[in-house]
Amino acid sequence: MVEIETLARQFIEAIPHARALGLDLVSIDAGRAVISMPYDEKLIGDPKTGVIHGGAVSAMLDTCCGAAVMSHPSRPGQTATIDLRIDYMRAATPGQTLVATAECYHVARSVAFVRATAVDDRTDVPVASVAASFTAERS
Amino acid sequence: MARPRPEPVQVVKQRRDAALKALVDAVPYIRFLDISFDRRGDELTGVLHFSDDLIGNPMLPAIHGGATAAFLEVTAIISLGWASLWDDLESGVLDPARLEAGELPRMPKTIDLTVDYLRSGLPRDAYARAQIVRRGRRYASVNVLGWQDNRDRLFAQATGHFLMPSRDGSKAGSAAPEKGAS
Q1: Are B65 and B117 in contact (CB under 8 A)?
Q2: Best CA proximity match to A84, nearest among B66, B16, B108, B13
């Protein structure tokens, strides 16, 4: 199992867009991934309030979901997003790091199912939540 | 009664382009992704200019699904904001100089967005156009289509709901009914 996680980590850390967003893989383990994104002014969506753009939150969550799929014990291998729905519950607090947690809860023959949430320093109500399906090629 | 003489074309273009530029330039994240907007009359087309920083799968290579989602969301929000602004801009109620000076209207907020990934995003520019299905006083429903080389071969599409900012800010009666007149 260790080598899948190592491979998934290497893959995630080599993604140019993940680097551009400043994403950091906090942990990855058997279908569960945690990724953080520090606050950055270049990601602001509302210049009046300094709130991060929803698009950046969704890019972070998509990456986290992909990482969760890749680390799943069923070894789904390479993956791509089929469909991703995001709900924005509240604005991310300016200045705070966002932390996404994704769980790949089922892998069928060709599809992996994932859910994820993102929080800032306040953890009782998520900033956003995601339900997604990804491609899977079970070996 | 003679109809009023139409404005010179340069005046019309200058006003519309200045307003659109002010709306787009205000958002750092739009600059980060390097998205611009082409305008034909009131119709907007988002352009995601390709750069290596957009890559999500270096092996293929393909544009990051998150960048695609963000591009479609940005296109939906700008198209909605632009549609809300259009009437006031054209009637003269809204002076584009005020927009340029940073007095920007509040933009719609995304409630939810569902993105359909139809093909992998190729390492080249992408385009998107939003169709506003309904723009009510409080909520709006928008579809966005994204393509690259061929308009008929979509690489992604999205549908989403947006919370519209209250018009007239504080003046808007908070006791106003939620539904009905829109």
Answers
A1: yes
A2: B66
| Interval A113-129: pLDDT, tens | 999 999 999 999 999 99
Give the CATH number, domain containing residue A69.
3.10.129.10
Answer whether residue B90 shows pLDDT above 60: yes
Q: List the single residue in A with minimal CA-CA distance to B71.
A: A55
Q: C-alpha B105: how far from its chain's center? A: 13
Closest CA to B101 of B19, B12, B17: B19
Domain range for residue A49? 2-135
Kindly report the nearest CA distance between residue B31 and chain A, in angstroms. Answer: 8
Whether A67 has a pLDDT exceeding 90, the answer reads: yes
Residue B172 has pLDDT above 60, yes or no: no
* Residues of chain A contacting residue B101, judged by C-beta atoms under 8 Å apart: none
Q: What angle in degrees, to the nearest 10, is found between the helix axes of B9-25 and B65-91?
A: 140
Structural domains in chain B, CATH included, are: 9-166 (3.10.129.10)
